[in-house]
Design brief:
By secondary structure, the chain is of the alpha+beta class. It contains three helices and eleven strands, in the order E-E-E-H-E-E-E-E-E-H-E-E-E-H. Helix 2 packs across helix 3.
Length: 182
């Protein structure tokens, strides 16, 4: 019998590159968990998330952060938990909704530094200016014809998510924009 072992590999091989004073880095193996809510269970799930991760339940189109954990509310009955490992079964969260591991579905890039705004202007139709987009904001959008999520990670960085199946094309689009803005 054949003895095989599968090992998770980063979509972009652990990419990490500087473009002047701006850095683009793959957040390899960043835990991502989709939370889908059955009708009427949002209050119970909100309390379970607060107890487990210290995260407040955000309004649709907003995100909350606590330490390395982020909760982005995608729709009234769907959220994306970014950062912490989550047990999908036999956990208080699983008692109040449907949890799906999305870690290998997305590629995550952190775009850090002063060149991030100029690079994103070329790629993203969302106004990411600090007065309009800041702490607690995220946007589902399109970049170079690929679906993407832009999250305000902190005052110096965006976290970008896109489908792992187009990770190379997504990286190329962001790199190209960064090269034009230096």
């Amino acid at each position: 019998m054949l003895d095989l072992t599968l090992t998770a590999a980063p979509a972009l091989g652990g990419y990490d590159k500087r473009f002047g004073d701006t850095r683009l880095v793959e957040m390899a193996n960043l835990p991502l968990t989709s939370i889908a809510l059955p009708l009427g269970m949002s209050l119970n799930m909100a309390q379970a998330v607060k107890d487990a991760f210290g995260l407040d339940w955000p309004d649709v189109g907003r995100a909350t952060q606590s330490g390395d954990a982020t909760l982005a509310m995608l729709s009234p009955d769907q959220a994306l938990l970014i950062g912490p490992e989550v047990a999908l079964h036999d956990t208080p969260l699983a008692n109040h909704g449907y949890l799906t591991d999305q870690t290998d579905v997305w590629v995550a890039l952190d775009l850090e530094g002063p060149g991030r705004f100029a690079a994103m202007e070329r790629l993203c139709p969302v106004d990411l200016a600090p007065g309009h987009f800041g702490t607690g904001h995220f946007a589902r959008t399109v970049m170079e014809h690929m679906g993407a999520v832009v999250l305000w990670r902190d005052a110096d960085a965006f976290r970008l998510l896109s489908a792992r199946s187009s990770a190379g094309s997504f990286l190329h689009a962001v790199e190209t924009s960064l090269n034009y803005t230096r």
